[in-house]
Amino acid sequence: MQQTKRMIAGALMVSVFALSGIFTNITFAASLTSISDNLDRLAENTNANHTIQFVTPTGLTAGQTITLAFTGFDSASVNAIVHTDVDLATAATCTGFSDRTLAASASGASWGVAASGGVITLTSGTDTITATHCVQIQIGTHATNQATGVNRIQNGTAATTHSVAIAGTFADSGSLAVDIIVNDQVVITATVDPSITFALSDNTIEFGTLNSAAARYADDVGGDAAEVQAHTLSAGTNATGGYVIYVSGPTLTSAGNTINAIGGSNTASAVGTEQFGARYTASGGTGTVSAPYAAAGFAYDGITTPDQIASATGSTATTTYSARYIANIASDTEAGNYSTTLTYTATASF
After folding, report:
1. In whole angstroms, how far apart are CA 281 and each of 19, 293, 342?
2. How far is the CA of 16 from the CAs of 6, 23, 85, 100, in angstroms?
3. Is pTM, for the whole model, over 0.70?
């Protein structure tokens, strides 16, 4: 009887040791954490870029694989993915990712990428991923590590259940769900009314008394012997074609007598010769003074038809133009009270 008990006890001990040896070789799969898939489009039947992230508790050793099984997405578009459409990166935390090298097949430190049956498989050559590290897989045109991606994955219909299962020969696995909708875009409209602003800083200026021995310049307080700003014009518009400013009106006139306008060429002051003219300078915005009014001399050619003095080629903030006027007379210029009215207009091209 004692011998029988000893035999049973020995058999039990052998069985325990055998089972213990079996259990020491079992590896239990761990669940991936922080799993997400950020798509740039959620509309049904639309091509989308995917950014898949997860944390692997166990990590990956050389030669192991990661598989991404897409359910509810267009299988043909999944199968069209190649290594240049994919970026694989890792980080200790899910920021500051470092890219891994990908190729059509695994070799050395390069990971191989293959797609078949709606599943994308990434295979390590000799590369590893540290346990508890974050993994990021970009699929689509935003993948740029090997080359700029070309292929994207097409969403299925909104009525279809969409999911991505992450597995492979490494020890961890997990899955995520994606909600595809009929239309993921909101159309927003707004109207901007056309506008143009135009202003003159002064409507009455004067030369004072003219003298054949010296040029005279207009201002708002009796004229000046030195060139001064007589007034300003300011213009701005949101018109895509910009604007044009014109001036028109007769030269200085007294009854039937006139002081000759300088004409359509930029001309220097000539004391003792009849001259009436203007020139302009610009500041601010993108408007510019037009020839012949932009140079150091003077011109005036708006007697019979309006003459362009400034313009902007597109929409612009306000440009301020400084207007300067000159008058010279000859020794035999007829006496009288001379005046003129110049008309300024601004026209925008919307």
Report:
1. 98, 8, 18
2. 15, 11, 52, 45
3. no
- The three-state secondary structure class of 19 is helix
Q: Write out the two tokens for 152.
A: 């994207």
Please list, in sequence order, all residues whose beta carbon lies within 8 angstroms of the beta carbon of residue 270, skipping any fewer than 6 positions away. 328
Q: Which tokens sit at 149? A: 């991606």
**Which of 151, 174, 170 has the alpha carbon at shortest distance from 77?**
151
Provide the pLDDT confidence category of residue 28 given band limits of 50, 70 and 90.
low
Name the residue type at position 76. Answer: A
Record the tokens describing residue 280, joined without a space: 């302009």
H or E element in which residue 16 lies: helix 2-23
Contact between 64 and 124 (Cβ < 8 Å): yes
Compute φ and ψ for 335, nearest 5 degrees: -70, 150
Structure tokens given for 12: 């039990």
Give the tens place of pLDDT for each residue, 213-228. 999 999 999 999 999 9
Give the start-end residues of each E strand in 153-268. Answer: 153-154, 162-167, 172-178, 196-200, 216-217, 231-237, 243-248, 253-254, 257-258, 263-267
| pLDDT, tens digit, 9 for 90 and up, residues 155-199 | 999 999 999 999 999 999 999 999 999 999 999 999 999 999 999
Q: Are 102 and 83 in contact (CB under 8 A)?
A: yes
Match 């740029």 to its residue by tokens.
Answer: 144
Give me the residues paired with residue 194 across strands: none
CA–centroid distance for 224 within its chain = 51
CA-CA distance, 274 to 257, in Å (whole number)?
12
- DSSP one-letter code for 308: E
DSSP 168: S
